[in-house]
Design a protein that fits this description.
Layout lengths: L22 E2 L10 E12 L2 E12 L3 E5 L6 H9 L4 E8 L2 E2 L5 H6 L2 E4 L11 H7 L6 H14 L16 H13 L5 E5 L7 H17 L3 E5 L3 H5 L4 E6 L2 E7 H6 L3 H16 L13
Parallel strand pairs: 1-11, 4-9, 4-10, 7-8, 8-9
Antiparallel strand pairs: 2-3, 2-5, 5-6, 10-11
Helix pairs in contact: 3-5, 5-6
């Protein structure tokens, strides 16, 4: 039975289906790769206060999925919920067909999730070689060197830096090391939290186009959180816009690059914040209403 235009499903499967409250948009046929990561109706936060609510995200192998939104939208909290750094308050995380919703952070890493945080992404007092070896913690000791050498073949610019301490690296070299270190464990899904933060525009473009794009082309799934929206959209195959902890828009990267209204979603959260803090003419209550 056909659905009416205002009927929605709980998970987006085509341009005509999207979570309630989410603007649905996609390519000509809405096709995507089968999900390696499927995070459904994720609710999570801190001290029993939800920051993200009912967010659904999927990532297929070979895809670069971009999460974007204004500061405070809940992007980093979503990432922490997916990696197991903060517990779920609701929803389900499935990796390669296995429910890992209640798995610990280290267990998720061993099952195939690599994570490069925005801060604290390398050990500053260790050398490049030592940082890479730390990334191989999940391998038997005798196999670590082989995996490090394989990663160095993918990142030849790190070869001459092996004896240098991470604190002496440039911003671009340091971020390259952080990504390389995460790859020593050979994850099939790599989560990058604002990898271009504090990098110059030229180096930022190099990280995304030369490194991230290449990793996806090799068959890894990439979940990218990026504040530089135009730069992130340059490599994204699919994207989600988060506003105030909820998904407001999802679409193919190609369609998002063509939209001229993305800025309105970023401004929306700011307007809501101003409305929340504006003085009222009557008695103030703590209830925000429905």
């Amino acid at each position: 039975m056909p659905t009416s235009p205002d009927q929605t499903s709980t998970q987006r499967t085509s341009p005509a289906q999207a979570p309630a409250g989410v603007t649905a948009a996609g390519g000509p046929d809405g096709s995507r790769r089968p999900p390696y990561l499927s995070a459904t109706a994720i609710t999570s936060g801190y001290n029993k206060v939800p920051i993200v609510r009912d967010v659904t995200v999927t990532v297929g192998l070979g895809e670069i999925v971009l999460i974007m939104g204004p500061n405070g939208a809940g992007k980093s909290t979503l990432v922490k919920a997916l990696t197991g750094k903060v517990p779920l308050m609701g929803g389900r995380v499935v990796l390669d067909g296995e429910d890992i919703s209640h798995a610990k952070e280290d267990e998720r890493a061993k099952k195939g999730i690599g994570y490069v945080p925005q801060l604290g992404d390398v050990f500053a007092t260790l050398t490049v070689q030592e940082n890479l070896e730390m990334g191989g913690y999940c391998w038997p000791r005798r196999e670590v060197r082989r995996h490090v050498d394989e990663v160095l073949e993918q990142f030849p610019t790190l070869q001459p830096l092996r004896r240098r301490h991470a604190r002496s690296l440039s911003g671009g070299e340091r971020k390259t090391l952080a990504i390389a270190r995460s790859l020593v464990a050979d994850p099939r899904l790599l989560i990058l939290d604002e990898p271009t933060s504090n990098l110059s525009p030229l180096i930022a473009a190099t990280v995304l186009h030369d490194v991230v794009d290449r990793l996806a082309a090799a068959g890894r799934g990439i979940l990218l959180i990026e504040q530089r929206v135009a730069l992130g959209l340059g490599v994204a195959t699919w994207g989600y816009v988060l506003v105030a902890g909820s998904t407001r828009l999802e679409a193919s990267g190609a369609e998002l690059r063509e939209r001229d209204d993305l800025g309105s979603f970023f401004l929306e959260q700011g307007r809501a914040a101003v409305a929340d803090t504006a003085p009222s003419s009557g008695p103030r209550t703590h209830s925000r209403g429905a």
